[in-house]
Write a structure and sequence with these properties.
Globin-like; 0% strand; 67% helix; mainly alpha
């Protein structure tokens, strides 16, 4: 007897609601991962998490659909966080793994590919900026 597995194609990311779905899934994964959860402890509070998810959706809406919904410096809060709790290569790998899974479990297509590519680019730039900040800080010590 053969089991028939339903074959269906996931749709592509189309709007803010899709971005909310991705960010909600992504943060659920982050908050369940003991290796990376300490960076996200503020988001145990549902109100703070909801506010942050709004910011993330604005960021990705602007990044993916050029909506003009985000104009802040996304890098600075992460550099500030790194000063309090060093962000290591392994943390970036976990972050990307969870991000990719949150996208791939729900979406497929050009926008899904683009958001993952841009997440990798952002993580790469962030690693470079953190390394530069660490060099500057070690010279001033």
């Amino acid at each position: 007897m053969h089991l028939i597995t339903p074959c269906y194609k996931l749709r592509d990311i189309q709007n803010r609601m899709d971005l909310f779905q991705i960010m909600g899934s992504f943060y659920k994964k982050l908050l369940q991962d003991e290796n990376i959860k300490p960076f996200f402890k503020n988001f145990d509070d549902p109100e703070i998490l909801e506010e942050h998810l709004q910011v993330l959706v604005n960021f990705w809406d602007n990044n993916l659909f050029y909506s003009g919904t985000y104009a802040n410096n996304a890098m600075q809060p992460h550099l500030d966080l790194h000063k309090k709790r060093p962000i290591k290569q392994a943390h970036f790998r976990r972050w990307l793994k969870h991000f990719y899974e949150a996208v791939d479990e729900n979406f497929s297509g050009e926008n899904a590919h683009t958001i993952k590519t841009r997440a990798l680019s952002i993580a790469t730039v962030m690693k470079i900026k953190i390394a530069e900040a660490d060099k500057t800080n070690s010279k001033s010590d």
